[in-house]
User: Fold this.
Amino acid sequence: MLQHILPASGLLFTLENILWINIGVFIGSVFAAIPGLSVILCVILFLPVTYSMTAIPGMMFLLGIYCAGGYGGSVSAILINTPGTPHAAATMLDGHPLSEQGRTKAALKIALYASTFGGIFSALTLLFLGPQVAKVAAQLGTAEYFMVCVFGLTIIAGVSGKSMIKGLISACLGLLISCIGADPMTSYDRFTFGVTRLYLGLDLAVCLIGLFALVEIMAKAEKKPGRLDLNAEKIKDDGVITKDEYKRMIRPTIVSSIIGVMVGIIPGTGASEASWFSYNTAKNMSKRKEEFGHGSVEGIAAAESANNAVTGATLIPLLTLGIPGDGTVAIMLSALMINGLNPGLSLFTTQGDIMYAIMLGLILVNLFMLLQGKFLTSLFAKVVSIPQEILTPIIVIFCFAGAYSVNENYFDVGVALIFGILAWVLRKLELPPVPILLGLVLGSMTETNFRRALLISNGSPKIFFSSVYCIIFLILIAAAVGTIVRGKVLERKAAAKKED
Assistant:
């Protein structure tokens, strides 16, 4: 590790990287503060910007958006009782009541400090645990990697919403779309229908602009535009946090950061699960349970430290195994691959300095998030009340400009529009879009490793049971499926009890 730290520091601490980190943090904070604009939408819109950058500044920019998005959602949750992002819902339970007590600045400061601690804790976990997981990943062959991909596909069940069947349908659609283009083994055309531009397949960034960005615009167009009025006087309190409150924040912040890391490492979970789990744990551990839901500083600290502790942890399976921890991180995969960095196997040995620069950069991202949060929170708060009729056209322009800039042709703009219409139809059918994303990301990798393994074994399926790692992943897959099925059964029983 030490032999990589100094060269990585030299690559990281440049004016260009510092600039892009701050731009990313600012954009992420602004987007997440506006209800209805998710972090994943923000990352998709600005992903094409990174295509003209090298690996480190590109990833620093996206990580700035990703981490700041974890904190930015708390701004609207505290100010107007509307979470800017889904994982800020737990923060809202105590953040808004504390704001109503005339302590808006204090609530925002608690959220910022807890988010920063959780983010740095997660970044340090990535720095020390990531290389160890990479050493194991370097020992995996094609059969083992296929099992890793299958394990990654179990994420789909976790992001399928209410209906697992609909989630699987979406995932199959994503896997089908990933087959468009040249066959990875034989180079024969598949599903191109004579369109030569489809020979190299569909660009992930272009597809995502349609699936997640344009469809949001269509959904907003169906609703009556509204304006969220913000009382500027609410953020003019002194923001004082007492010594006793700081002491009470310590234990829930540390415990919730650990929970956030543990949840983030497991593919298919995410910040929302971590924040609710941590909030409940903090409540059970607290000596002042009666304050929860009425402005508890422990509740805010627990929820915010957990959702930011997820950020670094989700990068561990991505950088070491090529398996994205959640939907937002899956998009970052293309930013790495455009620079020839294919996560997994020997990446830490062949591009070790770049990997360590990215991991160290995550610490820097959280420090700049703290600085911007301290000095620009009042600006982030004002963004909450931007009218939708102004915001929507700006996002549309970003969508089409981003689609065009990927390969600088209008064909991609048409593809983005088609995927936007497809996503709108799927939304009407209540089919979730995230499984499609995971199918697109993991489809090619799964197919290639499966077919290579069968070629090596002359078609014998025994190769998938031939090593200790294969058996371990089979057990993990069975455990994941069993846990998901058990969870769905318990949900149905709980729903049946409510009806009775």
Observations:
- The chain has a mean pLDDT of 80.
- Strands lie at 181-182, 189-190.
